[in-house]
UniProtKB/TrEMBL annotation:
Record's protein name: Haloacid dehalogenase-like hydrolase domain-containing protein 2
GO molecular function: metal ion binding; phosphatase activity
Organism per entry: Macrostomum lignano
Cofactor: Mg(2+)
Pfam families recorded: Hydrolase_6 (PF13344), Hydrolase_like (PF13242)
GO cellular component, one term: cytoplasm
Domain of life: Eukaryota
Keyword field: Magnesium, Metal-binding
InterPro entries linked to this entry: HAD-like_sf, HAD-SF_hydro_IIA, HAD_sf, LHPP/HDHD2
Length: 266
């Protein structure tokens, strides 16, 4: 049985899979080139919430990665769309200045109507988190929105660092509230990428370094998934992932993953 028969589309994670900060990972550009040369559709799906769309596109361009129009999907853009759809015009943004630029915010002083959390090292401090907690306690109708619940990520110095997930959980615990999360691994995120076509997931493969958010999330949404041993991957992650949604395969790099798909779909 061929694991990747019928594949027409690859969803690539970005940070930890193709690059880490401003450094390309080995074989990243070759992986993209070989996938496109084989006629596969290439999407980029990322939980990045540290920088806005404009800055992210600039960073990717500097690395030689240029998504086609409509092919870049981020947890931040989905969260901003949700805030707009919910009519939230004065969110308290625990986001970087770059990421905050993606949100439509009306001037209103301290009269906030919601809290939005992403990866923002300068904002996820005791003072700002306490401010968010007070807002959520004082205004039960104000929703808590999380770009995603990522536990940690690999930074450019090689060290693992906290993601926004632990801070979201802290606010939930302090306020007795549940956050709405919008990025991977939520089924809604993958649906927003693939569209309403019920057959689309069966023709797509997710390639990423996160056993839960990338691999298990994709498999639970009907895609196939390849976990790569780069970025935040730690030995044994595939065994620690959701036992009911294991990755379809595990490869050393994104390039190895693409070549496995191309060999197997023939």
């Amino acid at each position: 049985i061929k694991m990747f028969a019928g594949v027409r589309r690859i969803l690539f994670d970005l940070s930890g899979t193709l690059h880490i900060e401003n450094q390309l990972l080995p074989g990243a550009l070759e992986a993209l080139a070989e996938a496109k040369a084989a006629g596969l559709a290439v999407d980029f799906v990322s939980n990045t919430s540290k920088e806005g769309r404009s800055d992210l596109l600039s960073r990717l361009a500097s690395l030689g990665i240029e998504p086609e129009p409509g092919r870049l999907h981020t947890s931040l853009s989905v969260t901003a769309d949700a805030a707009n759809r919910l009519g939230l015009r004065r969110p308290l943004l625990l986001l970087s200045e770059s990421a905050a630029a993606d949100f439509q915010v009306e001037p209103g002083g301290a009269d906030f109507d919601s809290v939005v959390v992403g990866l923002a090292p300068d904002k996820l401090n005791y003072q700002d988190l306490s401010r968010a907690m007070r807002l959520l306690l004082d205004r039960p109708e104000a929703p808590l929105l999380a770009a995603h619940r990522g536990r940690y990520l690999r930074s450019g110095d090689g060290l693992l660092r906290l993601g926004p997930g632990p801070f979201v959980t802290a606010l939930e615990f302090a306020c007795g509230r549940s956050a709405q999360a919008f990025g991977k691994p939520t089924p809604a995120f993958f649906e927003s990428v693939l569209g309403a076509d019920a057959a689309a997931p069966a023709c797509a493969v997710m390639i990423g370094d996160d056993a839960e958010d990338d691999a298990a999330g994709a498999v639970r949404s009907g895609l196939r998934a390849i976990l790569v041993r780069t970025g935040k991957y730690r030995a044994g992650d595939e065994a620690r992932a959701d036992c009911e949604a294991p990755p379809t395969a595990v490869c050393d790099t994104a390039l190895d993953a693409v070549r496995l798909i191309l060999r197997d779909r023939r």
